[in-house]
Amino acid sequence: MSQFFTVSVLVATLATAIKFAVPYLLAALGETIGQRSGVLNLGVDGIMLLGAFGGYYTVIQTGSHLQGILVGLGIGLAIGIVYAYVTVFLHAQQGISGIGIFLFGLGFSDLLFQELVGTPKPIRPLPTLDKLPGVGGIFEPLVDIDIVGPLLFDHNLMTYMAFLLVPATTWLLMKTTFGMNVRAVGENPQAADSLGVSVAKTRLIAILIGSSLAGIAGATLSLQLAIFQHNLTNGIGFIAVALVYFGAWRPRWVMAGALLYGLVTATRIRWQSLDIIPQGASDIAAMAPAIITILALVLLASRVRGPAALTRPFSRH
Amino acid sequence: MKAKRMLKLFAVLFAMTLTAAACGSGDSTSTTTSECGSDLAVAAGESVTDLSVALVAPSAKDDVAFTQSMVDSLTRLGIEPQITDGTFVVEEAAAAIRGYAEDGIDIIVAHGTQYGGSLAEIAPDFPETSFIWGTSADNQGIANVFAYYPEADQGGYVNGLIAASIAGADGIGVVGPVEAGDAVAYIEGFTLGAEAGGSSTSIVYTGSFSDVALATTTAEAHAANGVAVLTGTSQSAVGAVNVATANDLPWFGTQSNTEAWSSDLTVASQVYHWDVVLADMIEKIEGGTLGGEAMALTLENGGLVMEFNGCYDLDSSVKSDAEAAIEDIIAGEIATK
Amino acid sequence: MKRLTGGIVPLGAALVAFLFGAIMILTLGASPVEGLGAMIDGAFGTGDRVAATAVRATPLLLVGAGITIAFRASVINIGGEGQIIAGALLSTALALAIPDTPKVLLIPLVILAGIVGGGLWGAIPGVLKAYASVNEILSTIMLNIVAIQLMNYLLRGPMIDPVEVGTSRIPQTERLTDNAAFPTLIEGTRLHLGVPMAVLAAIIVYVILFRTPLGFRLRAVGHNPDAARAAGISVERNIVSALSMSGALCGLAGVVLVFGSESLRLVTDGGSAGFTGSAGFNGIVAALFGGLHPLWTIPSSFLFGSLLTGATELQRELQIPNALAIALNGLIVLFVVSSDKVRNWLDLRLDRSMSTPRSETAEAAVPLETDDLEEALEETT
Amino acid sequence: MEHAPLLTMRNITKTFPGVLANDDVSFDVHAGEVHTLLGENGAGKSTLMKILFGLYQPDSGEIRLRGEVASITSPTSAIEQRVGMVHQHFMLVPTLTVAENVALGLPSNRGFRTDLDAVSERIVEISEQYGLSVDPSIEIWKLSVGERQRVEIIKALYRDAELLVLDEPTAVLTPQEVDDLFVILRQMTANGTGIIFISHKLHEVLELSDRITVLRNGKVTGDTTPSETNRQQLAEMMVGREVKLAPDKPHVDLGLARLQLRDVSVKGDRGTIAVDGVSLDVHAGEIVGIAGVSGNGQRELAETIAGLRPAESGSSVTIDDADLTKAGPARTRAAGLAYVPEERMKDGAVGEFEVSENLLLINHGDPKFRRGPLFDFAKIREHCQRLVDQFSVKTPSLDTPTSSLSGGNIQKLIMARELDSRPSVILAAQPTRGVDIGAAEYIHSELIEQRNVGVAILMISEDLDEVLGLADRIAVMFEGRIVTVIDREAATREALGLAMAGG
Q: In angstroms, rounded to a whole number, what is the distance separating the alpha carbons of residues C353 and C348?
């Protein structure tokens, strides 16, 4: 146990947790915006898988990470349009439509992968700051700073983007007209409608932002891991949805949830690598993040209330 | 352009195969060293049989791991099987196996331990068909079933021994999937080898064969702990290989050759050459014996081959120590379990 | 008349989805006609294949029936995978503990164990939702992860086949006693006891939901928990019941997968899908396709069962990855849920055309007061 | 030449499947006047106003604003054409602040970003001008009902509404608050605003209106002014027949106290005390009416008596001497309580259920409806048919989804179910709210009948006429306390109004 509580190990564990949390955070922030507008999307995992494949395949073809991320965004956007059409305009049950999106993404990403790529071949991973082409040299000394270096500077750009999106999402929701509309539409769509706020349009945009972020989250995952495989996400998208509930629809708490999940995972891996958790208990240790998330929610849940119109389709008549 | 390259490659590989066949003089070799920069595609050998063959396997046919090793092995035997891959759901695999049997395929390779139960039901219904099943050390006593399994601990030991010489006191990080199957055998053999070489291993089982993100995180944890070498197994190991590349750590592979993943950081891979036992089995099948025994892949019979990466500058004394160890394992002087 | 549209619209939606499938097959360079032929051949080509299709449909039907109970009580159960595993683990453990018990006794016992295992695993999110307000979507997802790891632990540890310990270390139990194997119903096919059992279970679910006080309470809580509570119905208890019963049926699916499978053993590949075949998710699809009606879930499960067996043949014959079938499943779900609105519209039309000729009863018809109608419609949407 | 009216709606007809909601309705409003739309629920007032607000399109007819033909296609276009509406169910987002609610749907000065400071400033200006004091930065859920209504009016004023529709605005207000509201409305008309006032409270209508249009069954049945008419005449125009405004009530000797409340304190949804030390007895053979303005703890008190809301320690609720303080709804009902909840579609009936299922909601577990473990549908049908006949619930069949019945019939269905349980105590909250006059008369007579046979009835109502007409004793609730209990004979509308305002 003592070997865990050294500064370098603690810092490294924390740094791992931060990196690990990134795809969860991106997807969960998107889902937060969607749910704030009253739309639950259980298909996040499917969108992530398609985004992950799209990003990966783009990097194979062009070598450009930026294009990979953009393709992930584009795929998210495209699926978002379908999802919005189905749930907002056709009033389909949201939970189930999401499962449909998930299954489609799971199958279709695998199909594309098998047809277009076949063997999982590694790509160049997203570079950390110090390895950025051109400007990397500026950051090199920063990465070497004790504690602060590995925690703050040894990350790729998507990590910073994910964490910057936390205040940005809060700002969007709380300080902009669009965000106000989103909150109104998620809480009392009739009222918003009576003042000329288009419920459908607001939800459409919220869904599109959410699914784009899910696509980006997927692309980030595959570019960060520098690989794609069948079911690469392993349920990250579902956990991201869970984190929105965990975070009580507030970006900051969603971030806390993603970090907690990442930290528990990173810690259990670290403890196993340091033999703090005996080898024979590996599967028991693997349950820890799930169980801790549930326990945390048991303590928090009764105090929060979700958007009143969540999962309720809106129609005027 | 592409065709030209392929042709060149083919020539090189053909030459290599010839050389290998010549030195082997019938016996298989237990080590090879690739030429640096060569493509790893397996060349089709001369067909050993006219019988029809089908393959049912749980992961993708080009997974650079378990299933690909079988496809490559069949290719070496000049066999182009009908393939149903990605059938990790047993019921689906069973349907496929039965379908091939009904179609009158002569030899059906059921490349997944989990298919054993289904096979026990299907095989007796098709006594004229031969079923080749692995990995298992036991053919369930069925007359038309052959079983095969790798003694993965043997190559694991050799990998461990070499790894220890590189890692020394810094230790070796091992990224395991689920604590089961040939993963455990490999890792335990590896650990013994590493200890024999004066180093130590730190082992983390992620709890999943497929979670690349966890395998990556695990490898990063190892790297941050200061290990000097990494190894790992299962299809999720690709994440760990990437970490090895990013951190410039030597990597040891198993099942298939991982050089394609790791540029020049793969030191050696224990590669499953199922073709050695398959060739035996097919010979027997052509002779009328459709099953009835289990065969192991070992270093001795050439089913396990240590493939050294020509691009990695391995100290020649270490390599000769490894080769000596292989001899000792074959001779039974070193215990790998 | 409603029954009719209940069937037609999802079928139409499925056809549209299949059209997409055909386009995908075409893009993959194969002939959709051959593809369809291969699928039909794979699912229904021989008597044995029909039986195999029925066997594939069985877990879907059980999970689907279970999901129907939960959804009718407005509880979203995404924990099918975990509940299947829980049922399978408990029943397997029992079969391992008392292998020599005679068949007539052991089969009911393992079935019971599966029901209990799945039921308990379902009760956990039920209790968490009812008494700690923990969202069930979240807890069931998390409990799936826990169940998988529990299975991995048990199958490589306490429950591992002793033969495997020294040899290949495959995380599987030993072959279970034949006393617990589900008997085959038609010699030479794989049609086993689990198939009629699942059909019976769906019928029982129907009876419970629509013909007993328990089902009445579950539906009341599902439609309007406030009114149910005010009428003296315990919302909490019924949420727990709904998830427990839902879990119990999933657990039963786990039993069928273990004791109805040819391998007659529990084996893990580290995830859940290898064992469950994703029945925990696909069962939701089947239930939905059946309009959340237990009886309609029977044909709908068989349809999806044939899709799965057909997809295997599709891959074998035309080398089209079975990932296509999963993608197709997703599309079908999307089309079917979207068609709900279409179905409502159709129902409304048909109802009106039905009610127009009944002019002699117009006296009894309520003069609908528009404001209330609007209010009521708003309430229901 | 006379100015064109602010609004002219001419020959408006609107049908819904099977229903003629507006039948050739014509209606106009001049600047600076209050024009009342009077009619029962379902007479077509709401439909007409929804057409005006762009939520529905008429099948035929035309709308003119300021003399010009207007096309109102959506709420936005209504707002742009300076039509404002205060809905009966407030259209406010509870989690947003006052300023945000006001700003919703309007472009911001700062483009993409909200400019709530500027909005707040303007809100303060408006509230000072009309005496509508409210804090712009406070969230709606923290406001009282009266304050929320002010926000609604501010919303309309902020949008420079020249024509303001107020749908049943006084339903939730104390008489004093109503007076305040009328002052505000008069100030608005003095500034040239035209107001459409929708109400069925006849004395308010007579007090406030300049003109009155009466609707019945979608048609205009009367067009008059307060000076030309009186309450009785208006009521008859609304209902289409002679109306008995007060039911007959024979004398009944008081029995024992069947429902006893002692020091009942209850927390509301926000965790603050909503009911504060209420003690009250209801005897066999009497109707006790609880009067008060909505939001003074009546709902929480009712929920506590019904076992739906836990009471604070020290409280005691008993029925026929059985302590039910912590009993929960099932045991409370078993002890003899019948409960007619305030919100019938939320708490009283399951909309998706068939009529027969709702009739069975409280006693579906009764063994007499079962054969073995299964329902005996023959017996159930027989039972339900009897109830439907006995309480004259108008429904096409027993299998009809309940939500498609009218409000009055759903209420009769609930009454049938509850009274059939042979209760010793009836708790009826707002028993006739939103119910047509015919059904209301019927429900009142049923309650009196139950009183006559020795049932103790506690009736909570915000409708003073109802309380005065039905109750034997009247308790007034204000801020969670019972401030006074008066015998019917001693009660006057004025005294009650004063008590309801806490005076």
A: 9
